[in-house]
Amino acid sequence: MSDMGWMRRSWTAWQRLVPSPIRALRCAMRLLILVWDGGIQATFMLLLCGDWNKASAIFIRPLQIYALPQMYAKRYAPQIYASPQMHFSDLLHLRSFFTAAILQVGSDEGGWSSIQSFVSSDKDSDETVAFLFGDMGVSVPYRTFLWTQEESKLTVKWLKRDLEELGDKATFISHIGDISYARGYAWLWDAFFTQIEPLASKVPYHVCIGNHEYDWPLQPWKPEWAAKVYGTDGGGECGVPYSLKFQMPGNSSFPTGNAAPSTKNLYYSFDLGVVHFLYMSTETNFLEGSDQYAFIEQDLKKVDRNKTPFVVFQGHRPMYTTNYELKDAPIREKMMEHLEPLLVKYGVNVVLWGHVHKYERFCPLKNLSCGSMDSEADLPVHVVIGMAGQDWQPKWEPRPDHLTDPIFPQPVQSLYRSSEFGYTRLHATREALTLSYVGNHDGQVHDVLEIRLKGVKKAFSSAIWFLKAGSLFLVGILFGFIGGHQFYSKRERAQWVGLKSVDY
Length: 504
Known about the structure:
Blueprint: H1 6-9, H2 11-17, E1 23-36, E2 39-50, E3 56-62, E4 100-107, E5 111-112, E6 116-119, E7 128-133, H3 152-166, E8 172-176, H4 186-200, E9 205-208, H5 211-214, H6 240-245, E10 253-254, E11 263-264, E12 268-272, E13 275-279, H7 291-301, E14 310-314, H8 329-338, H9 340-345, E15 350-353, E16 359-366, E17 369-370, E18 381-385, E19 414-418, E20 422-428, E21 432-439, E22 445-453, H10 455-470, H11 474-489, E23 494-498
Parallel strand pairs: 1-4, 7-8, 8-9, 13-14, 14-15, 15-18
Antiparallel strand pairs: 1-2, 2-3, 4-5, 4-6, 7-20, 10-11, 12-13, 16-17, 16-18, 16-19, 20-21, 21-22, 22-23
Helix pairs in contact: 3-4, 10-11
């Protein structure tokens, strides 16, 4: 283990980098491999960390690995599969050690990583900031026989700009499926994590599973109605790399088979500031009676709207889209039958989807019909945000005689749609939630959705009315106080406001 004297020698340099009270941590790293009975039984990462106060801490975290036999991708020859050895080790226990840190990992003998900094989230904040998108992929700096996503570099560029402008304000990134498009080619996962390192080293990187992480003909859940929905898009990965490279909240899992570990990170939720975020898996059973359905229903029931007045629901394959996705029609029908009633009943405000490589914002929807946009809206607003990098699908063009192209003209339910690559930026306070669509070609906002809470304003107006009445009659004061208090105590509800609708 490295001599911790470097902390004393480097104090002056660290002091210039780190304003109090942020901790500066430098962690010497070692790989521990436990071997018995002739084989590797367990692997761990050992970190010995110290700070400028000469305190030190030891963190031991398990490492997750996988091998080719655990996946169905036997069609890939050994010479093009390179075991990445170490895949994942979470450092969640470090969170209790500090709220913000500048971190460097390595050793004096083997060298040190670049210096990274991050800030842990404040769950009780009255403000929420997040960056959300789907279907980004990766671009590699060399020629390859695989299709990669050149546009993903611009998405990372503009996200990096936004994170730098935020400074030390807590935020997170949400990538809702079709993550690296590795499809069984392990080196693309490595390239993907290298590409997002400027982002994921600073803020939490949340994910949910998509068809290109999971789908394979032998997957355990494949009902008759979905025989043509779930194909070979996962390239034989069957959720194995996805499950071991990420660790999301909760403990959801589903058997994978073929001696592989269960697929994890399927559905989960968390509160951040004034927003409750809920993720689902569109690749595993979500029908009524399933574990996932029960989780979604119970989670929505338990949301405290006084604490988190806004609810954002996310999944990969969309419930609504005006793109010609005939293959996915059965799954959309099942989602509308089983999931939409829950979203409507429990007042979900925004529903975000990927899979379709476009941006599209709908009116408040229920069963393909728009709700009112002038009064308090109880219906969720669906937004497709799968435009972060992949470009397999055609653009919106007026070609009604080509059934494989997107629907034209634009249906009334679709208020804004664009084929421009980009991502969305969410900002919420106790008064309003704003979702902005940022285009990659200029890094500017091209569409905005705002959902504003109206309860407080109405309660205030009601109280003023009763006070005026009370100036004339004493009994009016009493009834005004009672009526105003009851009105104020009602749960705040959100009004949908469309701010901008332009295309280019």
